[in-house]
Write a structure and sequence with these properties.
Layout lengths: L1 E7 L3 E8 L14 E6 L6 E7 L4 E6 L4 H13 L14 E6 L10 E2 L2 H9 L8 H15 L4 E5 L9 H4 L5 H5 L9 H15 L7 E7 L3 E7 L2 E5 L20 H11 L3 H10 L2 H6 L5 H9 L3 H25 L4 E5 H6 L1 H9 L10 H5 L5 E2 L8 E4 L4 H15 L1
Helix pairs in contact: 1-3, 6-15, 10-11, 11-13
């Protein structure tokens, strides 16, 4: 079964083609036959990288902002030129899409219909940088692959069974009835990493109390018990919780009331401030990229140091909250671009939990561990670094949908 995965973001897209020919799903992620990355962060042009399992590599820059045009171009690289891995597009059996917000209606992955697309469109105001991009990918696939089965895999689905006590905000209940509640995000990553952690430790996931720290440009934690998310830091939108690259995370809502009433800020201005001008970028004045923050710290930049200090403080604060929700902790997982690569962040975060018996093996932590236990032998909490593979998790959901239907 050949499965194409589209993982579209606001300024990037990752695509993979997997071939799962076995009767059962492999225990570990298989290497894609083909994968492509598109970077739209430079306005008016798309920077493209394509590589294959056999080692072929293609790098291009195309002047366009059209997702439809780029998707068509990427599909051509699947069956033409040096990166060809199939003879024709009709060999693709199913296409899976990461969809950031599924609201309350979608608690599992679903085959995409017009009703599903309409629902995703209606939820775009809650994920304005992501849901519209996901819909464009679906349109592009329909245009070029016809009536092929497409599956929506929702980032919110993994958190859909969070208890009401953790999911419902203390606001007038009439607003709760209108759908204002904690939804949580990064669910595809949290689900993959939880399963992978159990594999690495050779334990039953249902027996583990696990906190997954997805730390990238966007950041969230998930408290996982009996294999299910029971609490998470992102909320009604992906803006809540941890300090992020350019997003504020949780702030006193009174600040927003003050800015509106006393400083005449518009909702549009607040949106830009909270989503694009806050977090590491806003405090440091340097960048939302932790690597550049660390470079600035090494040159004596005090605001960059403050940004890192706040980042670590809030990370430990929310890990503590997740420990309370779990009533203990067996496994702490770090994943995402920062979680997988920033040994300093892992070290500083773990130092706050030595009272739980958590002990890091500093030597393992410093040597770029991937899918490894980096805790000391005597640690009462296992600490893992896991390379998150959302695309593989999406492919697995597609495989299951094909088997089901």
């Amino acid at each position: 079964m050949k499965i194409l995965v589209l993982n579209a973001g606001s300024s990037s897209q990752k695509s993979c083609l997997y071939d799962i020919s076995s009767e059962t799903l492999p225990q570990e992620a298989v290497k894609p036959l083909w994968e492509a990355k598109v970077d739209w962060s430079h306005q008016g042009k798309a920077e493209i990288e394509v590589k294959t399992a056999s080692g072929e590599y293609l790098q291009e820059e195309i002047s366009t902002d059209s997702r439809l045009e780029i998707t068509a171009h990427l599909l051509n690289t699947l069956h033409q030129g040096s990166t060809q891995v199939i003879n024709q597009l009709s060999e693709i059996d199913i296409v899976g899409h990461r969809v950031v917000h599924g609201g309350r209606e979608y608690r599992d992955s679903v085959l995409i219909t017009e009703d599903v697309k309409n629902a995703i469109a209606n939820l775009s105001f809650l994920a304005p940088e992501h849901n519209p991009a996901n819909l464009e990918g679906m349109t592009a696939i329909a245009q070029h692959l016809g009536n092929i089965p497409q599956v929506a895999v929702f980032d919110t689905a993994f958190h859909s069974q969070i208890p009401d006590a953790a999911a419902i905000y203390p606001i007038p209940y009439e607003l709760v009835e209108q759908g204002i509640r904690r939804y949580g995000f990064h669910g595809i990553s949290h689900q993959y990493c939880a399963n992978r952690a159990a594999q690495i430790l050779n334990q039953d996931l249902a027996s583990l109390r696990l906190i997954n720290c997805h730390l990238g440009n966007g950041c969230s934690l998930a408290a996982i018990k009996n294999g299910r998310s029971i609490d998470t830091t992102m909320g009604f939108t992906p803006l809540d919780g941890l300090m992020m690259g350019s997003r504020s995370g949780a702030v006193d809502p009174g600040i927003l009331i003050y800015l509106i009433q006393k400083k005449n800020y518009t909702p549009e201005q607040l949106d830009i401030i909270l989503n694009k001008e806050s977090g590491l970028r806003g405090i440091s004045g340097v960048s939302g990229d932790l690597r550049q923050i660390r470079d600035a710290i090494s040159q004596g930049n005090e605001r960059a140091q403050l940004a890192l200090d706040i980042y670590i403080h809030r990370l430990k604060y929310y890990i503590g909250a997740m420990v309370a929700s779990l009533e203990g902790l067996d496994v702490l997982v770090f994943t995402g671009g920062v979680g997988e690569n920033a040994s300093e962040v892992r070290k500083l975060a773990c130092e706050g939990f030595s009272f739980l018996g958590l002990q890091l093996d500093n030597n393992k932590n410093e040597h770029q561990p991937i899918d490894m236990d980096i805790s000391s032998v005597n640690s009462t909490v296992r600490v893992l670094v896991i390379h998150t593979q959302e695309d593989w998790q999406i492919a697995c959901e597609c495989w299951q949908q094909m088997r089901k239907n």
